[in-house]
Amino acid sequence: MMRKAKVIALSSTAVGTVVLIATVLVWREESLASERKLLSQLETGTEEDKLAAVKQLGELRSMRAAPSLLRELRRAARRLYSRRKGTIIFSGDPRNQVGQWGQPVSQALIKIGRPALPKLLRAAADNGDFVSSTVASIVEIVLRKIEPELDALITEKALQPTNGIGESYTEPLLQQMCRLLVQDAARPLEVRRAAVEALARIQKR
Question: pLDDT averaged over consecutive 10-residue blocks of the chain (205 residues)?
């Protein structure tokens, strides 16, 4: 009798495990389908649909959405540049420079967090023209929000040139952050490589 009860208990446990795995797989597939739908909406939807997709992708913490979100920031900056070419003077929060896109996209990227770091580091290092520099300024804010511990280590202190010649200077925020990421052996290799790449690009400016 006891042996029969034990077999029944084990069978029930096995069935429960199978049901749990099946539930997780269904949930994962539904999440992926929802993510794909939102990414398509972000690419081809109306302005209102796109902004709604931005918010939902942030809530999903979709790592796959990071390139698309950065693309929308570039598009918004490009549209602004086309409309106001030659008369662009900005001050204050760069997230307000790209109309209604800056705040929701930056919030979505902050929610995605560290998985988006490689894409964000490369975007922040791209500072060659108005569009890329606008996106870089916004991404720097996002990076500081994602990495508050690193942000606390960043210093405003002026640095002396290593050769002792010339005036002192303040190392740019992004450059300091990249150095800290490169030096952190606990970071994923992909993040450290992106930081090395970003640092090299910054130093060539």
Answer: 55 53 49 87 92 94 93 87 62 78 94 94 81 87 90 63 50 84 93 93 78
Q: Distance between CA atoms of 13 and 26, rounded to whole angstroms?
A: 20
Task: Tell me the Ramachandran region of residue 157: left when phi exceeds 0, alpha when psi lies from -120 to 50, beta otherwise.
Answer: beta
- On whether the CB atoms of residues 124 and 136 are closer than 8 A, the answer is yes
What pTM value is reported for the model?
0.75
Domain ranges of the chain: 30-83+92-203
* CA distances for 15 relative to 7, 27, 41, 74, angstroms: 12, 18, 39, 51
Specify the pLDDT at position 14: 53
Alpha-helix runs per DSSP H in 45-65: 47-60
Q: Are 110 and 142 in contact (CB under 8 A)?
A: yes
CB 197 within 8 A of CB 125: yes
Q: Three-state DSSP class for 128?
A: coil
In the 8-state DSSP scheme, what is residue 204?
A: T
Which 8-state DSSP code applies to residue 96? Answer: G
